[in-house]
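Assemble and predict.
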Amino acid sequence: MSGEEVSRSPGTTLDVVRRQNLTQVLRLAHRDGPISRAELTRATGLNRSTVGGLVSELRARGLVEESEPHPTRKVGRPSPMVVAADDTVAIAVNPEIDAVDVGIVSLGGRVIRRVRYKNERIPTPTEFVNIVSAIVDGMRPELDASYRTLGMGLAVPGLVRREDGRVLLAPHLGWREAPVSAILAKVTGMPVVAGNDASCGVVAESVFGAARGVDVVVYLNGGASGIGGGIAQGGTLLMGAGGYAGEYGHTLVESAGAACHCGAIGCLETEVRRDALLRAVGLNDADVDRLPAALALAWREPDSAGAREVRRQVAYLGIALRNIVNGLNPRRVVLGGFLATLLKVVGEAGIASHLGVALPGARYDVGFVAATLGQDVLLVGAAEMVFAPVLEDPTLMPLELEPATV
Ligand SMILES: [Zn+2]
């Protein structure tokens, strides 16, 4: 082993402990910031000067910033507030059938800028790469002048292989075996990671949204092209062996149901569909924004086509949820997109009543809530994939300054 290799080895126990402490402080600033040094001291159980040293090192690595004391805290010695650095960013990308969204997302989970490229037709993988690289080229002066860019994250509506970000199948985009991550890495010169869109969603909602601080979370999102799902425990994604866990859109809910594009019949996403809800209240795909109000109105008339369709879909959703609740014992199920609309129309009790005879233990542990991050959710989740290695080991970021002495 050469000397250089020795210096890159995990190091002494003291180094390991320090790295773990840096990770703990960075994660708190990332998820809960702005947070005072006093709160960091309480949350970590470390002493005040140790926390001061860790904050100073994270600042020197460009990962946190300190602001003025919180104006509402008038009692006691004011403590400066620690936040994840706003100028450390990821490029987040979400290809969809109608548009490609590209955002600059800060380490604290804020979407700083968002560019939406409206597709005239569904982009091929090559067209997608061209669209993204053109948008990133346009952002380049701003990125170079103001930000430290750690890489690019893609939230893809499909099956993405964990090890290399290859898109094995994105059925609604018509992509098969598409190495878009590798090509984008080559074209942009940035590290690129990719994951399933709903997996990005569950991480974003776990870290910043409706399931913040919740231990076991399942996220189901209903969009134009179907239903995606993700599972997280303690803010970390449960990926499965190859990265494909959480495909609840293809769980069986109707054994005499319609054929699904996946080859099976009676999948959740063939029975629970946004277009069927739109049709039931006389709307079309362009009227998605009006769907919540139209369904709420229809729900007041139990015999209306809208109310009947809501009852039919909630019953099927209940079958899928019963399997999820019995199989995973989640604390919270977060529903996004038009599934959040269904939840708001029938209420949490309306969803829970369709769980049927889910076993009592798991059934009493679970709550159903609507997603809260709205249109930012997938970009925030895609950026989290980029930030994950640095959140795991902040010393991956070079020291840009000498840490201040405390
Ligand atoms: Zn299916």
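Residues 1-8 have pLDDT under 50 and may be disordered.
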